[in-house]
Amino acid sequence: MGRITARRRVTRVRRGDGPDVRADVLAVEEPLEIRVGGSPLTVTMRTPGHDVELAAGFLVSEAVISARGHLLAARYCAGAVATGSDGAVENTYNVLDLTLAPGIVVPASTARAFTTTSACGVCGKAGIDDVAAASCFDPAGDPAPVSAEFLLDLPARLRARQTAFDKTGGLHAAGLFHAGTGELLVVREDVGRHNAVDKVVGWALEAGRLPLRDTVLQVSGRASFELVQKAAMAGIPVLSAVSAPSSLAVDLAVERGVTLAGFVRGDSLVLYSRADRVVDAAPLARDCAPGDPVRPIRDP
């Protein structure tokens, strides 16, 4: 299997001091080609590890599969390269071929037109209409009540489990928590925030836990459109992020009935949709109306 970290020689410079040459630990970023039945589907830039979960979660977010029995097998293939003077062959583990159950078909619109980067989960889509896939899971009807105190604790609980981030400082993370018991169910890290979420959803698929009712998804960065989409596709009713959401992310959260919390840090958070699920905020929850005061919120 590929490594999640790599060492590189660097020169560090501090004000008032001379250069310091040392080894640094970096997050590994490598391509993963996902194939279905031998046919290329997409290429994503990711941190190696939990690749089957990543591929499975990607197919869930694309409305291709929705149950554990829909994915029959996954195997690494065609990633072998010759190494060394003796011609020894080493598998790069960067090509993963999936076998789906009979009758499960990948729509033509799902195939990416080009490589998906680690920064963007939807930029390879053929058109904007392909982005908002319809899910067989509906998070809107899930009450999933939580408290603001519970949400405010999640970033620190997620951070405590970011072991690869501790070494590199360069990985996003996604953690899934049970809204009722507070149990941390799973944490995944990756150079791509959307990949980390796909790995969480793929874990849930393999564990037979979809739809993810009564759960909260905590992410380490901002809340983008594709993260709201992936949460909705998996039936996750609450998405919490330590940074800002985009306008399109908020629009989709409202449309899909997902509670979206942003700027979750310290002793405050901002609710952008379905505030009724947050019991401390429910009496104040209502839609914005014309003439409401605007108070900009910024990252410190």
Automatic annotation (TrEMBL):
<keyword id="KW-0808">Transferase</keyword>
<comment type="similarity">
    <text>Belongs to the FdhD family.</text>
</comment>
<dbReference type="InterPro" id="IPR016193">
    <property type="entry name" value="Cytidine_deaminase-like"/>
</dbReference>
<dbReference type="GO" id="GO:0016783">
    <property type="term" value="F:sulfurtransferase activity"/>
</dbReference>
<keyword id="KW-0501">Molybdenum cofactor biosynthesis</keyword>
<keyword id="KW-0963">Cytoplasm</keyword>
<dbReference type="Pfam" id="PF02634">
    <property type="entry name" value="FdhD-NarQ"/>
</dbReference>
<dbReference type="GO" id="GO:0006777">
    <property type="term" value="P:Mo-molybdopterin cofactor biosynthetic process"/>
</dbReference>
<comment type="function">
    <text>Required for formate dehydrogenase (FDH) activity. Acts as a sulfur carrier protein that transfers sulfur from IscS to the molybdenum cofactor prior to its insertion into FDH.</text>
</comment>
<dbReference type="InterPro" id="IPR003786">
    <property type="entry name" value="FdhD"/>
</dbReference>
<dbReference type="GO" id="GO:0097163">
    <property type="term" value="F:sulfur carrier activity"/>
</dbReference>
<protein>
    <recommendedName>
        <fullName>Sulfur carrier protein FdhD</fullName>
    </recommendedName>
</protein>
<feature type="active site" description="Cysteine persulfide intermediate">
    <location>
        <position position="120"/>
    </location>
</feature>
<dbReference type="GO" id="GO:0005737">
    <property type="term" value="C:cytoplasm"/>
</dbReference>
